[in-house]
Design brief:
Na+/H+ antiporter like fold, alpha/beta, Rossmann fold, about 5% strand, elongated, 27 helices, 3 domains, Alpha-Beta Plaits
């Protein structure tokens, strides 16, 4: 039965994927490469274990749809509007630059102009699924180069529509009116706008009704229906299903239920997306590679180089530093999955022969396989791009460079704070520094933010902190503190390393998203690292302790201990003993009180052991607050001084007796 065949195929794919991807993880290779290898093994050019490739491709396309849907939910319409310069300038420039480079190169090879333009369309597209997965695995989706890359990928997905309409015109022998292209494009754009406007009005109301039922299954079904439904309706206008799913995600991102939508969809997304990578690997024909190894490797190198140059140039033109341009250019340096659709259409119209089609598939898949490795090695190449900074003066957009020059000129502050990044953390820190009168300067890579905030009087300078020249512009040699508040883990490591080399005495504080990055940042020279997930855990346990009535000073003391000792204290369970003690005696009978040691108290100068406070019959002294600091490591030899605040734990009568002894009324 066909249904049983599909189950068998999926079983074979997932079983082999477990073995191959586990092996790749052990040898520290990207999981994407593992799925591509699985596809090559089970595909028609490998062990031929799959009976129906078309069914697998249909299921795999659902993975791409769900991937773009979650990206849309996380991206939001606000971010899309904020990234309009990337979408409307960098995106078109990247496609045009790569298209021209490819067309010129192919024309020199002797290919007719029409076919050369067709090849330019094919190779100007990049793989949204592979790049997003690779960036997500490395935690770089929120980094500046990650946001730039995602914006350009979105434009490429939009560009597929005019390309699909333009390819038939290339195949025609005569030059017909441009109306054959303009009218369908206008109709598609109008329908998309109508879908977005309608969905923004109806979707929040629909989700509100679903949530009121309190049935989780209905919410999940509603999210899937909205995702696939809007994607299908959008595809009727000529757009891809994946782009329609992205639009659906954008619509849902405006509702209060966006985070729950992501949580429900992610398990399905990850499973189906892995099938997409497997389906791409099935296209690999080892025979073509064996017959033309040098030609294929040469073409792979040429395509990656052309896409890297075209992508990096388009990003540098709008004012981003070379490092960001190189990282984004490398991420975009593969052939995209939508190029396969264009290739099939071009083959049907006679623009591509069967032999060239197989050659294109082999080269494209190899660029996809190499993408995770290229992204992994991209930081090294980006460091070498620092010398390119001086070439930016020849680029058309010179306004941002001028901002950096004029802002940095005449900077004379010393003992100041350098804040790298003007996101939420950078803004909050800057506001506090301004209110307290501490001198500071901000280093930011986003030109629009620099211009806007500089007009408000904010001491902000355009520059890439991974470049030592930019750090010297903000006088890092005379600075007292460096705060790295960027989302890019690669940039954070590089900045710490450079700052320590220029000013060995500067106090460096780094914000990072993950706890696993702490050790490496400290090893590179950071004085303090603040991991977001770690601080979140501290906030959670602080709220729990506060609910149990633990004093605020004691909570802060434990928080500082945990920050100093990492998660060791949480694993040892020293806090657990205190909570167990409180819980075991019930909060109705136990409370915490503080008593100040007065000048004439007989407790002054005595040790805890000399006092007549003997638990468990009496209250327990659990901490002493002295000089604004909480001392919780107490022993019988701990002396009590005038002005000390003693923290007592016990029942009402126990605390009353201990208070009398400590205050001096019962000193006899």
């Amino acid at each position: 039965m066909p249904g049983h065949d599909l189950v068998r195929d999926l079983l074979a794919i997932f079983a082999i994927s477990i073995a191959v991807v586990s092996l790749f993880q052990k040898i520290r290779l990207p999981s994407i490469a593992g799925f591509l290898v699985v596809g090559a093994l089970v595909g028609p050019y490998g062990l031929n274990l799959i009976s129906d490739l078309d069914q697998i491709r249909v299921v795999a396309e659902i993975g791409v749809v769900l991937l773009l849907f979650t990206i849309g939910v996380e991206f939001s319409l606000g971010q899309l509007i904020a990234s309009r310069r990337l979408l409307l300038v960098a995106g078109p420039l990247q496609v045009i630059f790569v298209l021209l480079l490819v067309a010129i190169g192919v024309t020199v090879w002797g290919v007719p102009l029409r076919e050369a333009i067709f090849w330019g369309c094919l190779l100007s597209l990049s793989s949204t699924a592979i790049v997003l997965k690779a960036l997500e695995e490395r935690g770089e989706s929120d980094a500046l180069h990650g946001r730039v890359t995602i914006s350009i990928l979105i434009f490429q997905d939009l560009a597929v529509v005019p390309m699909m309409l333009f390819i038939p015109l290339l195949a025609q022998s005569d030059d017909r009116s441009i109306w054959g292209l303009a009218l369908p494009l206008s109709a598609s754009a109008a329908l998309v706008v109508m879908i977005v406007v309608t969905a923004r009005r109806l979707v929040p109301r629909l989700l509100e009704l679903i949530v009121q039922t309190r049935i989780r299954e209905l919410f999940l079904l509603a999210i899937i229906v909205l995702c696939l439904g809007i994607a299908w309706i959008t595809s009727l206008t000529g757009l891809s299903l994946a782009l329609g799913a992205f639009i659906a995600g954008l619509v849902i991102s405006e509702s209060r239920y966006s985070y729950q939508a992501i949580a429900e969809v992610i398990p399905f997304r990850d499973s189906f997306t892995s099938l997409f990578f497997v389906s791409v690997g099935m296209l690999m024909d080892a025979r073509v590679m064996l017959n033309h190894p040098f030609l294929i490797l040469g073409l792979v190198g040429a395509i990656i180089s052309a896409k890297l140059i075209g992508g990096a140039a388009s990003i540098m033109v709008i004012g981003f530093p070379p490092r960001v341009a190189i990282l984004s250019g490398i991420a975009l340096a593969q052939v995209g999955e939508f190029a396969f659709i264009l290739a099939e259409k071009g083959q049907a119209l006679g623009l591509l022969t069967e032999e060239l089609h197989q050659l294109f598939l082999a080269v494209s898949v190899l660029t996809m396989v190499g993408t995770p490795f290229l992204i992994k090695g991209a930081p090294r190449m980006a460091r070498r791009a620092e010398g390119i900074e001086r070439l930016r003066r020849w680029l058309p957009n010179r306004t941002i460079v001028q901002v950096a020059t004029t802002s940095a000129h005449g900077l004379t502050i010393t003992d100041h704070v350098i804040v790298v990044g003007y996101g939420v953390n950078g803004r909050n820190l800057s506001r506090v520094l301004k209110e307290t009168g501490i001198p500071y300067v901000i280093l930011e890579q986003h030109g629009e933010i620099v211009r806007r905030e500089a007009n408000k009087g904010v001491p902000i300078i355009y520059g890439d902190a991974t470049n030592p020249t930019a750090l010297r512009h903000v006088r890092i040699e005379q600075a007292k503190i460096l705060v790295v508040a960027v989302s890019d883990p690669l940039a954070a490591r590089r900045i710490v390393q450079l700052a320590r080399g220029v000013n060995s005495g500067i106090h460096t504080i780094v914000r990072t998203r993950y706890l696993k990055a702490v050790d490496e940042l400290l090893h590179l020279g950071a004085d303090e690292v603040v991991p977001e997930e770690f601080e979140t855990s501290i906030e959670i346990f602080a709220l729990v302790l506060r609910t149990y009535g633990v004093p605020h000073d004691l909570i802060m003391e434990k928080a500082e201990q945990i920050r100093g000792e990492g998660y060791e204290m949480l694993r040892r369970g020293s806090l657990q003993r205190l909570i167990h003690h409180l819980h075991g005696r019930t909060l109705t009978n136990v409370r915490v009180e503080t008593v100040r040691i007065k000048e004439h108290s007989s407790a002054v100068g005595k040790t805890i052991g000399q006092l007549s406070i003997q638990p468990p019959n009496d209250a327990s002294i659990i901490a002493v607050i002295r000089g604004g600091r909480t001392v919780s490591h107490l022993s019988e030899a701990t002396h009590l001084d005038e002005g000390d605040v003693v923290v007592l734990l016990g029942g009402g009568a126990q605390i009353q007796r201990a208070s009398a002894l400590l205050s001096g009324h019962g000193a006899s």
